[in-house]
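Memo to structure team: turn this sequence into structure tokens by end of day. - J.P.
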Amino acid sequence: MRLLLVLSFIASGLIVSAQFNTIGPPSICRVRNGQTETDAGLKNDTVSNNAVNVIAGKRAPLEWCHPPLKGNLRVSSGFGKRRNPFGKRTSENHSGLDISAKSGTPVYAMLPGEVAHVGYDQRSGNYIKLRHGSFTVSYCHLIRKPDIRVGSRVVPGQIVAHVGSTGRSTGPHLHITLKRNGRLLDPAILLDYISRQS
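Reply from structure team:
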């Protein structure tokens, strides 16, 4: 949430300097009176350069963010309290957001980052967790374990998995979990932000 607010403030010119920390060596960019000044490290930092260019209005924002699925997203179950789809209890706390999709539909990285974990568990089924600074995004119930190594860099729009129905699932869908410093957040915040960039 703070990242989104910081980027919004930078874009509107309400602050005079900012630091973009990406995976890899940190780079610093200062925005002063609409002009950008960069340190030597920033010249080779594609992620930060894209963010600076978006803020300066030089590039389309979707070069550094991308929806998790193509087409219109239909949320089948939101974040927070919901009726338990398995009927064991009347309600449960849903840790993420479910998007209806056909089995095999490509799943895309939403932001630049790196693969933090790839695995399987009984609840999430096949999943991949991507780290974006202090945020992590998990994509769950995938058709198969993603064939991508932990530590690999990802870019927005890169296919990282395919929709499935593995684990504790009632049918094919993409479950997205968003955390910041280990604390659950509503993924709708991120999806709304990305949709505003198109």
